[in-house]
Amino acid sequence: VQVQRVFLSRPLPAPLAHTDGFKLKDSCRECNNAGTYGGIKVFGLRAGNKLNTLIALLPLRPVRNMSTLNFDVARRNMIESHIRPWDVLDERVLKLIAHLPREDYVPKQHRNLAFADMNIPLGHGEVMMAPKLEARLLQKLEINPTDKILEIGTGSGYMTALLAALGRHVISVEIRPEFTAEAAIKLAHHGVRNITLEVGDGARGWDRQKPYDVILLTGSTPLLPEAFQESLTVGGRLIAIVGTAPAMEVKRIRRLSEQAFEEKSLFETVIPKLQNALEPPRFVF
Fold first, then answer.
1. CB atoms closer than 10 angstroms to residue 32
2. What is the dihedral of CA 223, 227, 228, 232, to 10 degrees?
3. Which tens digits make up the pLDDT trace of 67-118?
4. Which residue, 38, 131, 193, 231, is most buried by CB atoms nearer than 10 A?
């Protein structure tokens, strides 16, 4: 797992302080400081010549308000009551959701709501999507084991883990460094290794590791930048939630050839938009 451009503060915890711990790496103009956490590579982000210090990586401490048995019952109920009835019938997706501990990715203050049919707040106006929406998007992406996947909006890291379980490698981009750091700890805790986490603004495209077989935007965008579909391989699939509340539609774009694309509207939903998402022009009279 690689985690790039993460802000750090305070002394690094023990897992980061061992022999291959914190060292410099000049991999791009703004990326200088690097370290490791449980096999994860962590890069610092400089603003000018000064490192912005925001957060420290802390060990994962599970909250145990609900018993493991109750979580298992809630997970089964979520699948049978919310996910299957929403036309999610792909057995690979259902088995993965039944196996992956969603409760470990939910913010601790909302952990007992991990399997509720609702968006869960992450802070800063961002949310963890409702389980049935995550599952349906995952199914519609038609992920193959050889796929390289781009995720815009790491958030809690749960969707990242789902994507990584189905594909070959996931590049996940998050604009908020504290989200990336927290997701990195959770993903490392669960042994997810086939991912690269990057801190940056991917709302209008991310061509650094293109082309991609699959692209998923986990926040909505009023307008969908063409840069995303141009970053697809031939045969690649892109899913984005496009529009403004209360009318947003989930669109899937498939690249048929170098010049041809197929666009399909799948269903309607509403989720918060990506920070710095592309907006339609505003007319001033």
1. 17
2. 150
3. 665 999 999 999 999 999 999 999 999 999 999 999 999 999 999 999 999 9
4. 131
Q: What is the pLDDT of residues 226-247, one digit of tens each?
A: 999 999 999 999 999 999 999 8
* Strands in the chain per DSSP E: 2-4, 23-24, 31-37, 40-47, 50-51, 120-123, 126-128, 148-152, 169-174, 195-199, 212-221, 232-244, 247-255, 261-269
Q: How many whole angstroms separate alpha carbon 94 and alpha carbon 97?
A: 5
Q: Give the tokens for residue 126.
A: 């961002």
Q: Which are the contacts of 72, defined by CB distance < 8 A and separation ≥ 6?
A: none
Residue 126: CA atoms inside 13 Å, Cβ hemisphere, count? 21
pTM: 0.81
Q: What does the angle CA 234 – CA 236 – CA 239 come to, to the nearest 5 degrees?
A: 145
